[in-house]
Amino acid sequence: MTNPTLAEARVRMSKALEDFRRELATVRTGRASTALLDHLKVDYYGVPTPLNQVATLSVPEPTMLTVQPWDVSLLPAIEKVIRSCDLGLNPMNDGKVLRVPVPPLTEERRKQLVKHLHRVLEEHRTAVRNIRRDANEALKKLFKEKKISEDEEKQGLEEVQKLTDEFIEKLESQGKAKEREILELK
């Protein structure tokens, strides 16, 4: 009876880890990456639409992004969205394509990004802990309803804790790797 609870907890924790990976991809380092613009949405005929669904994003050079909208009339809106996002990017519009130079990070900006990274990491740690709490409550409920024995409950709680420790360790190792990448001077 504890296996479905553990399986559900594992799936939910995997989703939290995957969300953290996606979040890390949007955190800027000294290199250009199309993932920097993944979270941006452009007003496309009144509908907020992800940028990668209205334009082709590419990285022609290590410090340059290009955004080529499929509908040229979107250029001003895309330019405005990129300028207003909190990435410190300043796109150049040539009438058909937006060229977005990715400037080197200042020491102050690196520290801000590390703070942001720590905040995101803590949010995801909390999510994993909340999943642990839900799984523990489910196990205790099963024991209370006499669907599992006390030993099964105890073993299940231990397994949930091991799972939680495993996923928090994965989150922290990825966070540390990203922090090193941000602080690395080119």
Overall CATH architecture of the largest domain: Orthogonal Bundle
Taken in chain order, the helices and strands follow as HEEEEHEEHH
Strand order of the biggest β-sheet: 3-4-6-5
Assign the CATH superfamily of the largest domain: Ribosome-recycling factor
Question: Hey, roughly how much beta strand do the residues contain?
Answer: 5-15%
**How many individual helices?**
4
What is the count of distinct domains?
2
- Overall mean pLDDT score? 88
Helix content: 55-70%
> Which value, in Å, is the CA radius of gyration?
22 Å
Low-confidence stretches: none
Total strands: 6
Structural class: alpha+beta
CATH topology of the largest domain: Topoisomerase I, Chain A, domain 4
CATH class of the largest domain: Mainly Alpha
Query: Which descriptor suits the 3D outline?
Result: elongated
Largest β-sheet summary: 4 strands, antiparallel
Distance between the termini: 53 Å
Provide an overview of this structure.
This protein folds into two domains: 2-25 and 106-183, Ribosome-recycling factor (Topoisomerase I, Chain A, domain 4), CATH 1.10.132; 34-101, Gyrase A, domain 2 (2-Layer Sandwich). The mean pLDDT is 88. A hairpin with a 2-residue loop joins strand 1 (41-44) and strand 2. The longest helix has 38 residues, at 107-144. The chain is 57% helix and 15% strand. Helix 1 (2-25) packs antiparallel against helix 3, helix 1 packs parallel to helix 4 and helix 3 runs antiparallel to helix 4. The relative contact order is 0.17. It has helices spanning 2-25, 75-84, 107-144, 150-183, and strands at 41-44, 47-50, 55-61, 64-69, 92-93, 98-101. The strands form two sheets. It has a four-stranded antiparallel sheet with strand order 3-4-6-5, with helices on one face. It has a two-stranded antiparallel ribbon with strand order 1-2. It contains four helices and six strands, in the order H-E-E-E-E-H-E-E-H-H. It is an alpha+beta fold and 186 residues long. The termini are far apart.
